[in-house]
Amino acid sequence: MKNILALLAIVFCTAAVFAQTEKKQWGGKFEQLDQLLPTPNSYHAATGGPGAKYWQQRADYVIEATIDESKNLLKGKESITYYNNSPEALKYVWLQLDQNVNKKGNEDFGYVLGGLRDSIQSLYVQQSLRPLDFEAGYTIMSVTDKAGKTLPTTINNTMMRVDLPTSLSPGQSLGLNVEWSYPITDRSKFLLSREGYEYFPEDDNYMYLIAHWFPRMCVFDDYEGWQNKQFQRLGEFALEFGNYIVNITVPSDHIIGSTGVLQNTKEVLTPEQAARFEKAQTSFDKPAMIVTEEEVRIKEKTKATTMKTWKFQANNVRDFAFASSRKFIWDAQAVKLPTNTVMAMSFYPKEGMPTWSEESTKAIKNALEVYSKFSFDYPYPVALSVNTSNIGMEFPMISFNGVRPKDGKMSDRRKAGMVGTIVHEVGHNYFPMIVSSDERQWMWMDEGLNTFLQTQTEKERYPQFHHTEPKDIVDYMKGSKDIMRPVMTTSDNETPFAFGNNFYEKPTVALTILRETIMGPEAFDKAFKEYANRWMYKHPKPADFFRTMEESSAVDLDWFWRGWFYATDNVDLTLDDVKWYKTKSTQIDPENKGVAVKQGDLASKTSKEKAVDFSGGPQEFTVINTPEQDYRDFRNRIDDNSVRKKLEGKNMYELTFRNSGGLVSPVIIEWTYKDGSKEIERLPAEIWRNNEQEVKKVFVKEKEVTNIVIDPNLETADVNTEDNVFPKKPAVNKFDQMKKN
Prior knowledge:
single chain, alpha+beta, Neutral Protease, domain 2, Zincin-like, 3 domains, seven-stranded mixed beta sheet, disordered N terminus
């Protein structure tokens, strides 16, 4: 122990000799995250995977539902079988009543609009103050056990507690029957509306997006017990997996796109449509039409007065949604994945033509193929994209996606937005519909990871469109820290106008930097895929992701999670100083015993002033022999002359880097040499581990350098690149600039 302490004392003394700054901050940003993360246990292991005793609940549903188009009313009844796989006895259970968020007086998001102002649009007033009132929310007709006995309930806004006559013991199951109805609401009257109807006055028809529509079991888990945080629109859902049998009765000329597999195709489609649907099962090269535009135009004019029931079945899903309208054109294409064949299908009104027929199913196919490569093969039999207005929202196997052409035309920018929305919402099947994180608690775990994979899909399949890059987050990152919150913020507590940046863009940029700049694609991709496969059909927490990425790659990333997810610092590296050195011309000491013989005086360029360019030439320095006492007990000796010889004629550049933004980052250096050639050199973020504010490093170069740029390709989201270059750019005199202009 004494020898170790003596050695450490030498090391620290030596470090002190070479310390270049008076103020240092030792290791704070590189401390381990242990004190911030939950302690690993038998449910969530230290590896980041499910523990040996991991458990989760399950809920199976049998649902009957009817849409009354004349009243815009949905009626339903459901039988739930709830399985208690936990080690705890449950005296009551909680169900989500999401439609209650639409009731006037319940928690809403009127404040998002920021109050009133002169000349405010009537639509904003309606969405904020709701002067034109309308009916909304559930009417719960009955809640009974499987024997039909009424159970006591308590409704608190969007949550319903059901008290049980006897506790539900571990390993037991519970049967619940619920009957309900609610008025389907006009989506245009809500800010952040995710479901409801869209009305088309031109042909007097409706398009129904039915989601959050049935009372659903809340999650009960080892992390927080019942997840019964109120639904406030921004924070989405935590849900249990189960099997669904759903029968939906609608006007007989409606087409339904839904979670699950259609069980009675020949009963609800015409013989021609059923034959097209069958043929589409092997249409791998392009989409095949199931319902044509011509058929839709006829139905829009002659509305059916009879009803039909569509029957669907979905296994191992955490939710169920559907869309219904007589306006739907329907196309489908088979997508072959390594372990599964998926039917990619699109549903859209004639108002979406021609762009939707050209792009939607293609976008589904691209999303499934790229996401599967990065995680796991899409396991479900179908993937749907439904066109509607002003929305992008995901559910198992189905998504609702906005953006339509105007007069049959669409700009490239709008098309990129449409395609990006479809890829993003279809991609949500992976996160969180299969890797089932809690969106209400940690929205970045689904939105951030999903937007990252959306970006990978766009890079690979749509290089002509803009995709998220590190530079895109710069304006947000350099904003006011007084109102900025870390990514590790509960979704409903984020400021609405920072919502997209903090939960979508910032995690995407962070993961892009992690993959491309820190870990490298090979290590990152293996670790990311490991996380996805470990948590398929399970409920991961942030610590599970952090730990899996480290455990699967052998890269210590605690500093990265701390900086990008737990703090509001930004990347702002400054190339603070550059010094150019060459060894002083010397004569070799023939006996290698003493100080090298000096020739000439030390160059005058020893000023402490910082250089602004290379015009002053190099400073010279002398390499002396190592004194005997510095070898201590070592018997062998360095060949001093060889050291001098190796440095002879070389250019040495001492670069001083300053961390002005607080977020430690790798340092990427572009060197431009006198002969015009360039070189990229990369330093890991760990160079800051002993001094988080300032670091000096010396580089030995054969060729003379004429220009240095830090982060030349904008990889690190540096918020100020003006101070990343040498020679220094001359300061701009704003007064002189104004006179020139």
